[in-house]
Structure formats: C-alpha cells, structure tokens
Amino acid sequence: MATFIKSKSSSNSSTGVGYSNGVFLSFRREDTCKNFTDHLCYALVQAGIPTFRDVNELTRGEEISQQLKAIEESRISIVVFSKGYASSTKCLDELAKIMECKNTIGQIVVPVFYDIEPSDIRKQKRSFLEAFKAYEEICKVKMKKVNKWRGALNEASNLFGYALKDMANRYVFSL
Which keywords has UniProt assigned to this entry (predicted)? Predict the structure, then answer.
C-alpha cells in the first residue's frame, strides 16, 4: 500500500471548492526523487500548499487507484518529465489521468522538463522512443492504452512549462 506526503493545511478553502489537494506531483522515482522532486515537495509544503506525492514505490501489478483519486482531487498537477519517465507505466497512467482532468475539470498542469527536451517527448525520441517500442511489442492487445499514453505525452509536451537543463552537472540545493 502506498503512503503519501500531504501538508497539514489541507482545507478546501485554500485549494478551491471540491479539491482536497492543492498539488499532485507526478515523477519517476529513480530519476528525480532524491533531488529535485524532494526539494520541490518540501518547498510546496513549507509554503502551506497541500501536496500529494507518492513516497513508496509500487510493487509490480499493484493498482494506482489512490494516485488516480488524488489526481482528481487536485487543483494543480506538476509533471516532472525525465529521461526515464516513459519507462514507467505508472507514470504514463498518471499522466493520462492528469490530461483527462485538465480537459474535463480544468485542472492546471505544469510540466517540468528535467534534463530532457520537450521535443523528445513530443516526437517520442531517444528514451521515449525506446520505451514505446517496448510497449508496442508487449502490449499489442492494449494498443488503445499505448495510443492514449502517446496522446497524453504529446499534449503535455505542448504546454508551457519549465526546462531544467544539465541538472546532472549541477549542485542540488540541500536543506
């Protein structure tokens, strides 16, 4: 079972009517968890913004229903795209739900491109190309889902966001 970080000030008055979370963070644990995402989450919580972030890794086959519910209850989703993001079906399922919420309930989506170009996502090049080649081989029966992931990636990569380049060679602020 997954556990989550959520700031103490989670009243609906601060997040808007119908929202129990302010921000949902979507990221690939192996790529950004111990640096950028930890610092971002800490800053949001310190600012009093209710923040939902999965702090435990799911085991293979475990449902992400808690994450999907948290996405629906969030006013904003921050998606931290990294080189390995597309290799996680959990991340892709979250992204598909995030983009669905953007289009149906007006959720605000802020992409962060962490050491990756938006065009790599949009055109599905490099690591994104490799991941989708594997999905097409494995998921021949589930091509509808694979195409949904592709569409969500393309739509998200066209949003205004933040590009953090050459992060591997930078000192990460520590608290």
Answer: NAD
